[in-house]
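Complex record, two chains
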Amino acid sequence: MRIKNLFAAYAAAVMSTVLVASAPVVNAASNPVTYAMYGDVKDWDPSIAFSLEVMMLANVYEPLLWYNPPGSEQQFTPALATEWSVSDDGLTWTFKLREGVQFHDGEPFNAEAAKMAIERTKEMKKGAWYIWADVASIEAPDDSTLVIKTNDPQPIDLIASSQYAAYMYSPKAAEKGTDWFNEGNAAGTGPYKVGQWVKGQQIILDKNEDYWGGWTDKNFDRVILKPVTENATQVQMLKSGEAQFISLVPSDMVASLNNEANISSYAIPSWKNSQFLINTKKSPTDNKKFRQALTHLWDYDTVVNEIYAGHAEVGRGVVPATLWGHHDGIQAPGFDPEKAKHLLKESGVPESEWKVTMAYIGTSEEYKNSALLFQANAAEAGVEVELLPGEWGVIWDRAKNLETAPNLQSMTWWPTYPTPNDWMIGLFRTEEKALFNLSHYSNPEYDKILDAGVALEGSDRAKAIENYHKAQQILMDDAVAIFYADINTRIARSSDIKGLEVNPAYNAVFFHRIHR
Amino acid sequence: MWRYAAQRLMLLIGILFGVLVITFALSRILPGSPVEMMLGHRPTQEQIDEAKAQLGLNQSIPNQFIRYVSDVARGDFGISLRTGQPVLNDLADRMMATFELTTLALIIVVLLGVPLGVASAVRRNTMVDHCARGFSIAGAALPVFLIGMILQMIFYGGLKWFPLQARMDAAILYDYPFDRVTGLYLVDTLLAGNWIAFKSALSHLVLPVLTLTLAALAVVTRITRNTMVEALAEDFIRTARAYGLSRRIIYFRYALKATLIPMLTVIGLTYGFMLGGSVVVEYVFDWPGLGGYVVGAITKNDFPAVMGVTLLLATTYLVINLIVDLLYFVVDPRLRSS
């Protein structure tokens, strides 16, 4: 009996030493910051990523240039390029590159590396590669000079500051390929490097000690990115201080969150806007007067103030008001049922044919309520609106084909890189086979003015803007869409965070630039 | 018994094939295209066409099915469109998280539900019975997600006793690494002697396990009670009483043993119920298991992932049923002789 007890005591002692002698801390961090993301990173390859990855990319990688938020004195902040210029014909761009910069894997950043990164993106034809589609050649005459030649004049400065497909990464990483990236690996030059990725659970970014931009004591030395799918959970994490930033802020909670002592919540302009594209080929909306009438049956103020809870501005044309190139002279058509009735009569469309179909993403409360309001207002003017809610993949496929397309189609748009032509080309330039031009709009004069503007964007931006203004006016006159809301981004964060500057050009927080 | 097992295995393969046909058909008949999912926010027409070709979506449906079945037979479940990773890897990563959650919950349900049921049966229509009934019915009546959120509000928001979500504290998961031997964090951290990580894993398990337990407790308690009541009315119990055997022996050796077969059935069913319930629990607690995975996959039209999870869950369910059926032979000698 005694021997048995002794044995038990011995076993217990061994067990407790094993338990108490835990693993030591391997990666100490003194000042972490946590961001609750909506979803995990999918594509780790910077040449392919085209979705929720910007939060990781913009902190781990750097492009040649960062685009500055609207209202800044300069349009760009030098990142991996320090100086840049364009030839008079607008076809040759020369970038002076930052010297002495290393990738996270120890490889030097130089012109050859930059050339490789851009060329790889272009050749892979994945994600947002098309921003480089017009590049004819890239040369690296010496380590710190990069020369990019294009077939037609292109705004390579803007393209080089894109939030997708413009990040510089190590040639060694490129050799290892997409599969290597997709194991959660990265090799950029940014202030943070990837410390750990546990699929679906967390991404840990660690301080890159050798960052060329340097460090201060105040900087966060660790960034924790956590996928949290439920907005109620995100809000609880923010309230308890477990997260400093959350990505899902319900529009009706902005005010109440802001009342919490330790939370700041507000909304600021983004470059995302929403519209209902009006089919210009399909009866009765192939009639311009009829289309104009529809734009007056939309109750702009109610939609923005009630349905979007004030976290949006009434749209003024196709380009968001805070992006360069926006035509300030454009006003929203305004809610005016009398004018609409007048236009309907003038249109010559017989009253029996005042019927339109309206397709939108059914899971969106905003679309749904806006469509219901429009349906009610249109009914008073004698226009019957048939609502066709659906899933994006389905309604998109139907809208592309003129046979199955609705008269009105929901669309929310934001630019790949900061240029107004992203909307004007993507949504309204003539397409042989419709992809996103779901108004099926085709106007040779518009195309001509737009193309001339695009060609001038790199070399003479002021002239380009003139053209863009004309093009925006044409779209308003032709009533190709109900441009109804420039959406604001809703922010909710710990109020002790300082230095946060939200930049609509990037769907990211730059953690190196903020502190407590 | 072995012949029976072999027959059942054959049947299992047939059922799985049926599941395959149904899920495949549903994924192709229901509207929605997975292609946009793969391509980010603004694909070109070329990228769309290429993706469709890559997924085989431009082939006829029977051809797509043959291709899928032959891939699955070779152990290739395709690439998840949402995560970009092979479905098989995703499933392997997440399966053990679900297993840890549901198994712990099942153990607690049995340890709690059976004694509670026995007590209710023995002390029928007393306070014990009423309380047990009230408690378990409340758990069954409330939707699982509501139980989860209420627990979160009380124990995270109010009392700050337990963490809100995830499997482990983010910093601990990074700073105190341990080898993933089994994929069960509790076991792995113990094997590594990593006490800090173990504590974190344990505290993160409490609320989701409790949620699942509360949701499933009612069934086990009620069935135990009812079968026990029936058993206690049997002649052999009366005989045992007449012999003057102690109550403990009567209840636990004779009566409880007679309830084993229905109990096994219920426990098997409960495990199936928990696999279903874990979908909601995992979503509420950001538990990185199969449940959260399938919700994400369904909302994003991620066909390969949905089919993979369905097959895995169906297999698990069928295997559990098989095990339960085989256990009948173990607990009931009468079946073995026939």
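Note: Chain B touches chain A through 54 residues (CB under 8 Å).
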